[in-house]
Amino acid sequence: MPNKGKNIYELPWRCNNNPQCFLEITRVCKVGCPSCYQKNGFIASRHKPLALIKEEVDIFIAALNPSAICIVGGEPTENPELPQVVKYIKSKNILPVLFTNTFNLNEKILNQLVQNGLAVVYAHIDSQTGQFIKVGATEAYMMEYRNRFVKLLKPYRGKIYGMISAILSDSNYSDATEIQKWAYRNHDVIKYCVFTLDGYKSGTGTKRKALDAEKLMQSVWPKFCLNSCLRGTASNEIHWGQAVTWVDDRGPKFLNYKLVSLLDKTHHIIYRKNTTIIDPKLLKILPGLFTTVFVRPHEQGTIDFCAGCPDQTIIWIKKDEKKYPILVHSCLSQDFILRGYSDEEHELNKTINNLNSRCIAACGYKNKFYSKNLEIIKDWQEALKYPTHY
Ligand code: SF4
Ligand code: SF4
User: Fold this and answer.
1) Contact 60 CB / ligand 2 (< 6 Å)
2) Does residue 50 lie within any of the structural domains?
3) Which of 219, 248, 253, 352 has the most other CB atoms within 10 Å of its CB?
């Protein structure tokens, strides 16, 4: 099996026991990244109503046992209900994590969100988002915006933490090491670095693998290593590779996979939940923890997802005049959106019928015995007809 020989901890995440999920609260975003699947810029108002958002929070909690709920979009700061969303998630004793391109973020908004319980801010800042402010913006140019983000978070150091993310395509792939260096330098507020290896639109992306990216990092830090992972649902290759590291002012130290396994299992025994390394409670005890992730999404029309996907989102299907929520990988929802919700026969049906219960499931959340009654949706034509309703 590819990559099978590598010493690595296989994360035990499942669709009914997962550290996090994606709560989509809007389709609106004015930035318009080329690789974004939302029809941004064309939708004047496509915010999910607060009542539906709260319902989805309840579904996630019942279905996934999450430690954190990621508030995503579009651009979540466009939805005026964002503070209420943060408050509602916090009231359920779950960590609210905001995913943002940071352009709308300022001291006033952040202060209100922190008061309402915001725990983590995940900033997508790269040369793609940069085109919104300057045509031809490079990763070097975007350092100013990364620094602005750190400056915003500094007053809350120790209370909330930052994650930084970039989509890597051929044009900026080799810049990943500079972004990583920047993140290590700002380790007091930045604790997580996510690189998405763009390959979604077949033939236009880099189609890099997580192990290639590990080698790229090793060109600067020879001991850099991926020590935990999720494999693909079809290929068994590493699709979601994670390097949990210890970073302090002396620089990064790269941890053995056994240590990461011990940390994860201990956390699970204590909290009965899978670890979110970015949890401020955990970081108070272990302040040097720093994680770098390489995500390799499936290519359009293929079935190779991350098994145990931590980014599941909800779509709604209509069946027998009732609407049902279904959990899907958020990258799979791209297929729904880009294909215009067509029910024409395509690879997607085959895809879904081939997936197993680790990846995708019907969500009978009102049934308290949800996890015992996990059911794989077979009739995906229904999902293609009625994917979302807001
Ligand atoms: S910032 Fe995010 S939501 Fe907005 S266009 Fe880019 S990827 Fe899409
Ligand atoms: S949404 Fe897709 S790329 Fe992201 S973790 Fe899930 S399966 Fe992997």
Assistant:
1) no
2) yes
3) 352
Is 347 a domain residue? no
Q: Which ligand is closest in space to the CA of residue 165? A: 1
Q: Is residue 110 part of a domain?
A: yes
Regarding the beta carbon of 294 and ligand 2, being less than 6 Å apart is answered no
CATH no. for residue 183? 3.80.30.10
Tell me whether residue 389 is in a domain.
no
Q: Which atom of ligand 2 is nearest to the CA of 313?
A: 1
Q: What would the pLDDT profile of 180-211 be if each residue is shown by its tens digit? A: 999 999 999 999 999 998 865 544 555 788 88
Q: Which long-range contacts (CB under 8 A, 24 or more apart) does 245-251 make?
A: 245/289, 245/290, 245/291, 245/292, 246/288, 246/289, 246/290, 247/184, 247/187, 247/288, 247/290, 248/187, 248/288, 251/184
Q: Read off the amino acid at residue 111.
A: N
pLDDT score, position 241: 95
Beta partners for residue 24, in sequence order = 72
370 or 291: which leads in pLDDT? 291
Mutate to test the pocket of ligand 2, among 327, 330, 336, 358 (most ligand atoms within 8 A of CB): 330
Ligand 1 and 71: CB distance under 6 A: no
- Indicate if ligand 1 lies below 6 Å from the C-beta of 77: no
User: For residue 47, what are the domain limits?
Assistant: 9-295
pTM tops 0.70, yes or no:
yes
pLDDT mean over 222-251: 92
The answer to whether the CB of 124 is under 6 A from ligand 1 is yes
Q: Is 75's C-beta closer than 6 angstroms to any atom of ligand 1?
A: yes
pLDDT band at 381 (very low <50, low <70, confident <90, very high): very low
Per-residue pLDDT tens over the stretch 141-160: 999 999 999 999 999 998 99
Buried b (16+ CB within 10 A) or exposed e, 86-111: bbbbbeeebbbbbbbbbbebeeebbe
Count how many domains the chain has. Answer: 1
Q: Find the mean pLDDT for residues 56-80.
A: 91
